[in-house]
Design goal:
Helix 1 runs parallel beside helix 8 (308-322). The chain has 3 domains: 3-113 and 247-322, FAD/NAD(P)-binding domain; 120-244, FAD/NAD(P)-binding domain; 343-400, FAD/NAD-linked reductase, C-terminal dimerisation domain (Enolase-like, domain 1). It has helices spanning 17-28, 54-57, 120-123, 134-145, 158-169, 185-188, 190-202, 308-322, 392-400, and strands at 9-13, 34-39, 76-79, 83-87, 92-95, 100-102, 105-108, 112-114, 128-129, 151-154, 174-178, 206-209, 213-218, 224-229, 234-236, 239-242, 246-248, 260-261, 264-266, 272-274, 280-286, 291-294, 302-303, 336-341, 344-350, 357-364, 369-376, 379-386. It contains 9 helices and 28 strands. Its cofactor is FAD.
Length: 426
Amino acid sequence: MSAAASPDRAVVVGSGLAGLRGAEAMRRAGFTGSLTLVGAEAHRPYDRPPLSKHVLTGAVAADATTLPSLVPLEAEWRLGTAATGLDRKNARVHLADGSSLPYDRLLIATGTRARAWPNPHEGRLAGVHTLRSREDAAALRGALAAGQRRVLVIGGGFIGCEMASACAALGIPVTLVEPSATPLARVLGTHLGDVIGAMHAARGVEMRCGTEVEWLEDDGRGRVVRAHLAGGGHVETDLVVVALGAVRNTEWLADSGLGADAGGLDCDADGHALDSEGRADTRIAAAGDVARFPHPLYDGRRVALEHWGHAVAQAEHAGRLLAGRRPDRPYAAVPTFWSTQHGINIKSVGLTEGADGFVIAQGSPKEGRFLAVYGRAGRCIAALSIDCARWLPAYAAQVAARAPFPPIRGATDQPADLAVLPPGFP
């Protein structure tokens, strides 16, 4: 379909970053039909990264995170009303208020939600929080500002580490519990996870790695008072943050016939959604955290990414696709990610999964400033910088070019010996 023959009705399900940028890309690509954005939350699209950083410390208010609109959308907004079903035969999206929306083109950008504590009763105790939405961040900020005896963070991924960093910045005692041997072990491996753990410990975070929380105890009045650890022991706490990762919002697609499950919605190389038989529905595209797609840099392995830059890039790709601008090549943007912990910038490019080795290519972990490159089967697949981001673009280019591993040699500030080390993934 050409841009000049734009369909009359486009619906975007998901009013976060990917939904907004996808809708804008459709308009920029020449789509002139009606456009409706559906969102489960009542707010216009807002930026999530500040929620676990600046909002928690009080530097930014939760309601000051609204994303700017880059182009006039001339759209209808259906906010505060979640999508509950998709009828592809009749091309309609069903909503929680009982209404439905017809579509000619549909962008699915429903993202993720925070994984809840597995025991529902314990998860509802006062003082037990997750962090995903603007309301979550505002509630946590209020609790932190009120003063806490000790905060317990369950989970040593990026959100858990950023939460622990915020508490340390506020001078609040904080314990982080992580079942792996180090924080971020599944993403960085235990070798570099040790470096991150030491960074937190040096700034006052009590690290409890290699154990897990078995149950949360209330005080008899419905408020959490302590957490009991596997194998014995406990942590006294009056505020618990459950940081156990994210769940992709695909339940509403259960009866749609699309290839969707808890791991995401399957897409083809162009970005069209696939049905359960692997056939593309060219009326539907997906973008952002919910989209599971074959990435050319990783031999077509299907991945679903939870990265800010990816949400923008893939949404723009999907928006152009739905407007009739078929891409010349499959979506292949190099994944990027960043985090700030204790004032230290952590940035990465590529995906570390499956790495069989890594090298310290610039700087030194002992100095707290370095860049590591991950390899798999003899080629570069990812790079990570700790307060050393000026070198990252060069290594991002190496990842994109599928360059041999180890990569650049003889560079400034490079160790004399590029020893290949085992990442130590769990």
